[in-house]
Write a structure and sequence with these properties.
about 350 residues; alpha/beta; about 25% helix
Amino acid sequence: MMAIVYEGAGKFSFKEVPKPTIESPTDAIVKITTTTICGTDLHILKGDVPEVKAGTILGHEGIGIIEEVGSSVRLFKKEDKVIIKAISPCGYCEYCKRQMYGRCVNGGGWILGHLINGTHTEYVRVPFADFSLVKAPADLDDLDLVPLSDSLPTGYECGVVRGQVKIGDIVAIIGAGPVGLSALITAKLYSPSTIIVIDIDENRLNLAKELGADYVINSKLQDAIKEINKITNNEGVDVAIEAVGIPTTFELATQIVKAGGRIANIGVHGHPAILHIEKLWDKDVTITTQLLDGWSVDLLLKMIKSKKLNPRKLVSHIFSFNEFEKAYQIFSRASENRACKVAITKKDNF
């Protein structure tokens, strides 16, 4: 089978690799029908995630059909259509019992495309299948479902839920990539009074407006703090969701949050950020950090089925499986290519 293989910092190949086999009774082998590329995959390619070893198949998102299950798998069977969660929890350790699946200490957590071979291939071995897969409705297209693997629950769990978004809040989302836009569409479920999206990519800001943002701010062209002060009468926002992962954007979140407000960090940070505690110590501000757990996938699936959510709008490009390398090239230059979420599919009906 063919796969995208990490070959060391700055290098990958699309090459023939062995098909996976069942290694544990809790495994499932899934035939990938549609997958997508995450910003984290690009971080890996840059060498920002040193625990990823050369020779690892990238990818942690996907929709597929079960080819085979281990003897201990109880909830799934051959030919089931499934959503592959980005997080593979054992289901039984101390953290899994607290629904902190991303912190699994029994060989699970974020492992696909990280510590073991991932989903950018034709077949993937999914450990802890009963906890790592979700049955997918046959009447929903893969493009409706693929954001459920990672970006949609990440924006919801790490941004909206952690930020405690509620009715009437003013919410600022810094970063209009797939995760930031996922935070936008799921925040709207809680009826905040105002949602502001900040980015430097005009195309993504236009998409944010289309998806329901009340205000968009291009921080490359505008002073974001001044614009926020105008919108909020100098009070700041109730919730600042950081969805980029660089020091500048985290520090911006701390500058625009109001007294008593919440900062929900989603971004994957590779460098230190300055925390101006001398300005925050008396403001009753809460700062949260989190890796995706994936507990919300079933809930968000219900919202998609009932047409309360439409994450398909996040998919900007569709590639066939033999165009995988091109998909990486397009997504790595997202701004110039107007790319948001790219889908790579083996299906021919899109």
